[in-house]
From TrEMBL:
Enzyme Commission number(s) from the entry: 2.4.1.1
One GO molecular-function entry: glycogen phosphorylase activity
All copies of domain DUF3417, residue ranges: 13-120
Lineage of the species this protein comes from: Bacteria, Bacillati, Actinomycetota, Actinomycetes, Propionibacteriales
Protein name: glycogen phosphorylase
SUPFAM superfamilies, alphabetized: UDP-Glycosyltransferase/glycogen phosphorylase
Protein function: Phosphorylase is an important allosteric enzyme in carbohydrate metabolism. Enzymes from different sources differ in their regulatory mechanisms and in their natural substrates. However, all known phosphorylases share catalytic and structural properties.
N6-(pyridoxal phosphate)lysine: residues carrying this PTM: 613
Pfam families: DUF3417, Phosphorylase
UniProt record similarity statement: Belongs to the glycogen phosphorylase family.
Catalytic activity from the UniProt record: [(1->4)-alpha-D-glucosyl](n) + phosphate = [(1->4)-alpha-D-glucosyl](n-1) + alpha-D-glucose 1-phosphate
Cofactor: pyridoxal 5'-phosphate
């Protein structure tokens, strides 16, 4: 029999235990081990059974046990103390309140996935984990961020293996009533709903769940409502589930619906409205279109015109691009966008041709039939960044076509390297070790890491062993579960008791399985890998995990290849593939590994963060110089696998890189690990661990990342947005852009004269330059005429050029001007220059703001 209706009966806690409700629903417990301990104590067995989920624990404990605890004054006191501790955390003065003047009211952070804790499985991999770490860190630092995402009924998927190693997916339902979420309600108690017009009669409705991530609210939109007809109910069914139209509906909901949800949230709770909108990857890009719509409809007076609204919205928008892999960028058929935005548009009033133009691939090689979400992201955000220095470079090159006429270095995409949230990812034992040695582990001053020098080698080594041993136990238990699930009988599984060895060098490799991450590179020469695993004196053991996207059969084949290798009785005690990679598996995995392996196809790993988490736990990275590792590898904080990235032929490249990997493990990594001194400690290894902690610790933290975002992007965006919130300023800026665009065709440099140096010059001599420029209708104040100068490369191109602003010397009728200036030559060697004209305005964020340029 099926129930015709369902609801959830919430447990009632005895009065003295009621503070547990807030302790369970505020996700701060997920990075606060003492709160976890408190819950575990309520019922250790139930705590295991609910996989460390406080809300489910409260529902699972017998009422008699709760009454018993309510009568236990020592326990009640601890509950009160924990609640007081949370209240202090939520209210205490923060980095933000101490450091930021004239702070923006709030900052909205949009992301298609959020990986906060494994009990809220709303993530697929690094992008989501990063978003989770971003919110937690914002909470720690007191940054007034509001997260915006979707609540997927089935999350991503749960991964299991078939008998022969093929990935299988299941989609358990997440019941929001038993999750750490509360429904946003209007003051009269009804759920607050938002709607979006979509083709057809009925709009798309969504309710808004709120997760409390410490001080930070996370709004999650959910379409699983009776109000929604048919298909529309399933818009938020799965993360990255459907393609095409389903994906577009999700992204409209996230972007357009997300802004509407923020408005409802502010209205109901009184939270100040966001002044900055940050889109984590392009999926939420429609938020810019919705903000333009808001500004174009009359509020107290006439609304703004589209261009003016675009400038206002752009000034406060930040776009972070996350991948140089084309498949990671959403592209919709232009016709589909047309179908949605003409007629019954989600953003009524925004002309469909203007919307289409925002996502048009106008660059060389672009596809006119496609609407590109990344391209729209750049057009709708005045500030954009990549997620490591290398990825910044790669992105500037990749998107250079959107700013033709500008050299790569001037493409307005900066970079902020990702970081990780230490309280989530660093093992307790590591924090305790540092505290015992006198460090203030709550501080994020770089000097804190000097503590690595004050911990004895023996202590460090024995802590690593403890962590390795814990990992070995976790691996065995997960492997047993997986084999039972694959159909093995318990009696066949005795061998699992001796899988892995807590004294063997342990290498971890866990990540999603897109092809560029090359899960199976280590299998390139299976005999060689086997020899490394079974080495008589210096064996290594490998823990491997990762999910392939359900539609990616190629990825599933890689997993199967890996599983088949690991199933071999000859090596299965030294190599395991664990299904179901998630936060819960990752937390003991990083600390338990001695070495963290990463071998992507350079430069496709935009940043990578798992290696950072390993490093914070004293793991050494062994990685291709890609993403963050390209930036911070210093020659002695780990190993660089030489990359053959000049070689186009993939097979040969894989051969070369795999063989370099085997060599490194065999000749450098393993011998060092097993080289014990008289005290039984591998002192040269420990030296590297210390150096890793000191060199990487201060850099890889998400507190560093968040401060960078605040200083380099959020505050400048908030300032720009405030300036433009005066409609006259915005209108003037938009009109200026229009005027410059309209008048640009006739702008040209007639000729350039120079004096002071002939064919050769000495250091210190001065070069006088005069450029005769015709500006047509534009004035000398509308443009910057620049002398662009620098060293000369082999093809006469300027290498790392610098610019000198030329001033107006004389003007003539017909818009002709002489611009002039002089430059003192301060570097020897081949030197060259040119002159260019770019539009100039104080509200522009870079010389490339309009994309217009004229070069001599
Ligand atoms: C950190 C983390 C990732 C991201 O790892 P990358 O190195 O960026 O690939 C993915 N999944 C989980 C569970 C993580 O904790």
């Amino acid at each position: 029999m099926r129930a015709i209706r369902r609801f959830t009966v919430r447990p009632v806690l005895p009065e003295p235990l009621q503070p547990l409700t807030q302790l369970a629903t505020n996700l701060r417990w997920s990075w606060h081990p003492p709160t976890q301990d408190l819950f575990a104590e309520i019922d250790p067995e139930a705590w295991q059974a609910v996989e460390g989920d406080p809300v489910r624990l409260i529902g699972a404990v017998e009422p008699a046990r709760l009454d018993e605890l309510a009568a236990d004054s020592a326990f009640v006191r601890r509950v009160e103390q924990a609640a007081a501790g949370l209240a202090t955390y939520l209210g205490e003065p923060s980095w933000w309140s101490r450091n930021v003047e004239e702070p923006p009211g709030s900052i909205a952070y949009f992301s298609p996935e959020f990986g906060v804790t494994s009990v809220l499985p709303q993530y697929s991999g690094g992008l989501g984990i990063l978003a989770g770490d971003h919110l937690k860190t914002a909470s720690d630092l007191g940054i007034p961020i509001i997260g915006v995402g979707l609540l997927y009924k089935h999350g991503y998927f749960q991964q299991t293996l078939s008998r022969d190693g093929w990935q299988e997916e299941t989609y358990p339902v997440l019941d929001p009533d038993t999750a750490p979420l509360s429904l946003l309600r209007e003051t009269d108690g009804r759920p607050s709903l938002i709607s979006i017009a979509v083709p057809g009669e009925a709009p798309l409705w969504a309710r808004i769940w709120v997760a409390a991530v410490g001080r930070v609210p996370l709004l999650l939109l959910d379409t699983d409502l009776e109000e929604n007809a048919g298909e529309l109910r399933a818009v938020t069914d799965r993360l990255y589930g459907g393609g095409g139209e389903h994906r577009l509906l999700q992204e409209l909901l996230l972007g357009v619906g997300g802004v509407r949800a923020l408005r409802a949230f502010s209205r109901i709770t009184g939270t100040p409205a966001p002044e900055v909108f940050h889109t984590n990857e392009g999926h939420a890009g429609f938020l810019g279109v919705e903000r333009i719509r808001e500004l174009t409809v009359a509020q107290d007076g006439p609304g703004l015109d589209f261009d003016t609204a675009l400038e206002v919205s752009r000034a406060g928008t930040v776009f972070t691009t996350h991948t140089p892999v084309p498949a990671g960028i959403d592209r919709f058929p232009r016709e589909l966008i047309e179908q949605y935005f003409a007629g019954n548009s989600p953003v009524p009033g925004a002309p469909v041709d203007r919307v289409l133009a925002l996502g048009a691939e106008t660059h060389d090689g672009g596809d006119p039939a496609v609407f590109n979400m990344a391209v729209m992201g750049f057009r709708l955000a005045q500030r954009a960044n990549g997620v490591s220095q290398l990825h910044g470079e790669v992105s500037r090159s990749m998107f250079n076509g959107l700013w033709p006429g500008f050299d790569e270095e001037e493409v307005p995409i900066s970079s902020i390297t990702n970081g990780v949230h230490a309280p989530t990812w660093v093992a307790r034992e590591v924090f305790e070790l540092a505290s015992r040695a006198g460090a203030d582990v709550s501080s994020d001053r770089p000097e804190v890491w000097d503590v690595a020098d004050h911990v004895s080698s023996e202590q460090l080594w024995s802590t690593k062993r403890t962590l390795r041993e814990r990992l070995v136990e976790d691996v065995r238990s997960r492997l047993r579960t997986s084999w039972r699930q694959r159909g093995a009988a318990p009696a066949e599984l005795g061998w699992i008791d001796s899988v892995l060895d807590p004294d063997v060098l342990t290498i971890g490799f866990a990540r999603r399985v897109p092809s560029y991450k090359r899960l199976t590179l280590m299998l390139r020469d299976p005999a060689r890998l086997k020899a490394l695993l079974l080495h008589p004196e210096h064996p290594v053991q490998l823990v491997i995990a990762g999910k392939a996207h359900p539609a990616d059969d190629g990825g599933k084949r890689l997993i199967q290849e890996m599983v088949r290798f690991a199933d071999d009785p000859e090596v299965r005690h030294r190599i395991v593939f664990l299904p179901g990679y998630d936060i819960a598996m990752a937390q003991p995995l990083y600390p338990g590994c001695d070495v963290w392996l990463n071998n992507p196809l350079r430069p496709y790993e935009a940043c990578g963060t798992s290696g950072m988490k390993a490093a914070l736990n004293g793991g050494l990275n062994l990685s291709i110089l890609d993403g963050w590792w390209d930036e911070w590898y210093d020659g002695s904080n780990g190993w660089a696998i030489p990359s053959a990235d000049g070689i186009g032929e993939e097979d040969r490249r894989d051969d070369i890189e795999a063989s370099a990997l085997y060599d490194l493990v065999e000749n450098e990594v393993a011998p060092r690990f097993y080289d014990l001194d008289a005290d039984g400690v591998p002192s040269r290894w420990i030296e590297m661990v210390r150096h890793t902690l000191k060199s990487l610790g201060p850099r890889v933290l998400s507190t560093r990342m968040l401060r960078d975002y605040v200083e380099q992007l959020y505050l400048p965006a908030a300032r720009a947005s405030r300036t433009l919130s005066e409609p006259a300023r915005a209108g003037e800026f938009a009109a200026w852009k229009r005027r410059v665009r309209d008048g640009w065709d006739v702008v040209h440099i007639e000729h350039v004269e120079s004096h002071g140096v002939a064919d050769s010059a000495e250091i210190g001599s001065s070069l006088q330059v005069a450029a005769f420029v015709s500006l047509g209708e534009l004035s000398g104040d509308d443009v910057a005429v620049q002398l662009v100068h620098g060293r000369i490369g082999p093809d006469d191109e300027l290498v790392e050029p610098r610019t000198l602003l030329l001033g107006v010397g004389e003007s003539w009728a017909g818009g002709r001007h002489r611009f002039e200036g002089s430059l003192s030559l301060d570097r020897s060697g081949p030197f060259g220059y040119t002159v260019r004209v770019v539009p100039r305005h104080e509200l522009a964020a870079s010389a490339a703001e309009t994309g217009l340029v004229r070069i001599a």
